[in-house]
Amino acid sequence: MEGQEEVEMEEGREIKKEEEEGRRGEEVLEAVATELGPEREADNDEGRKRARVGALLRELGEVIGVEREAGAPRRPRSDAGKARLTWRDLRALRFIGEQYAITHEQLERLLALFGEEPARERVSQAMAYRTRARWARAGLAEARQVVSTEPPIVWLTARGRQLVELDVKSWRPSMNTIRHVPAVAEVRLYMERSMREGEWVSERLLAGDQAVGRRGVSAGQRPDAEWRYGDGQVLAVEVELSQKEEGRLRRVMRDRLERYENVWYFAPAEPPSLRALVERVGDSLYRERVAKARELRSGPGSDGERQERRIAALEGHDVVLRSLEGEELWSAFDAFEEGR
Questions:
Q1: 49 in any annotated domain
Q2: pLDDT digits (tens, 9 = 90+) for 64-87
Q3: Per the domain annotation, does 237 fall within a domain?
């Protein structure tokens, strides 16, 4: 009997907790609906509106409820057609929105990355499917297998982007993006799990005005991502899956080396010709830069502070080739040192 009473008491506490969370969820979402509703249309400052909505969402702190109908509040775990959103959901949705899309298998690892057990590498397939279903019922995300030979991918709807405050253009998968978009997401998953410090800024954010301290970067100048770390240092991230014309790769790589401390190229192990191309172009550009640095050092004004910074930038900026799993395969600096 005592065991039964303890179970009943525990169940009572859980019910009470859910009721409290439900009331809090209703209050916050009612406020969100007000901020996004027609009565606020007179406020033309979209930035201020997004800031108000973001502050309201952060007030909740634990659980947010959303029904199918846009903006409608919910009660916890009662009727069909309702979904419960946690902070892990919000972080995962934001990640997906910034990256355009991810695969279902990547979703398993993404949910683990934002979970309460840091050492856990992935959640179960069943949990990832349940999460996708909740998001779909709430109208926040879609999932589809675009090509039979490629895995299903998940992307945000307009409502999902609005919820996580992403002011970006709409996007749907296509034959041109079905491989590259998940490959870039794979690199981000690796870097956010393994790097000790830093912040990933996606190409989608660089294209707009949401990258911190930037006003939007033209298409030709945008890497697949920036990795910001240390005291204002920025690393360019590029993902190459197919062979490029050598002159085009040289132009892109030269641009990145002029604007970033270093550039990391991620590529699959096959075909080996792609790896050889990146190595050849990177090595050539590095030797070209070192020769320019030597010329500056021996010329007039070489002892000036500005000149020294130019020389250091020419000699210090490097190209590093890595596998899609993160393993370092080659660097222009190491190749130059070995060839001296």
A1: yes
A2: 444 334 344 444 444 344 557 899
A3: no
